[in-house]
Amino acid sequence: MNSSVSIEQAIGGIHGEEMENRDMNSLSESLKPESKMASVEGEDSSTTLLFMELAMQQAKLALDSLEVPVGCVIVEDGKVIASGKNRTTETRNATRHAEMEAIDVLLEQWQKIGLSESEVAEKFSRCNLYVTCEPCIMCAAALSILGIKEVYYGCANDKFGGCGSILSLHASSSEHLNRGGAPQGKGFKCTGGIMASEAVSLLRSFYEQGNPNAPKPHRPPVHQMSQ
């Protein structure tokens, strides 16, 4: 199983657009921590916050590298088995979101120990993902196809969110995945709004400082525009 190829082929070309190529002010305005509130209570609450804090650490590492600060961890049976951070600028690959990075780490590990496709599916069905921002359409599609058990995220992604903000690919009945020729989405539970303010703060820090790697607009001189 070739990890990156199999995932990108599996999602059938469903890609979320890259944040850094969009209007910074518009995106900053759309990052609302109140968009969805977490409903995690009791004993599970402290555990969820612990893993989300680890995801935040990954996001901070991304920010230090001048990447859009999104980070995640994947947890199986209460243990972190993979982590990821946004690397789209470093790799010059628009698909290298934090979730895809963590997924590929696991696929590579499981391939090395010889797990079958059904065994990989079983492993994913026991895993939870903690990510600082709502997965985009691309990542939500991949997570649904892989059969992740549950996703916890920080702030909503009102531009490209695949877990309720734009599409609801976490729903097992999503018509966007379960139709002719598309891979079958298994769906997953989803809870948002966890440490949302912290997630928004990181993203705003990135956009307020400016993105030196963003493409420069190519506009003709004024005298040419008037001709």
UniProtKB/TrEMBL annotation:
Domain of life: Eukaryota
Keyword terms: Hydrolase, Metal-binding, Zinc
Signal peptide limits: none
Gene Ontology biological process terms in this record: tRNA wobble adenosine to inosine editing
Matches recorded under InterPro entries: APOBEC/CMP_deaminase_Zn-bd (IPR016192), CMP_dCMP_dom (IPR002125), Cytidine_deaminase-like (IPR016193)
Gene3D superfamilies the UniProt entry points to: Cytidine Deaminase, domain 2 (3.40.140.10)
Gene Ontology molecular functions: tRNA-specific adenosine-34 deaminase activity; zinc ion binding
Ranges for domain CMP/dCMP-type deaminase: 46-174
Alphabetical list of PROSITE patterns matching this protein: CYT_DCMP_DEAMINASES_1, CYT_DCMP_DEAMINASES_2
Region called Disordered, residue ranges: 1-35
Name of the featured protein: CMP/dCMP-type deaminase domain-containing protein
Native species: Tetracentron sinense
Lineage: Eukaryota, Viridiplantae, Streptophyta, Embryophyta, Tracheophyta
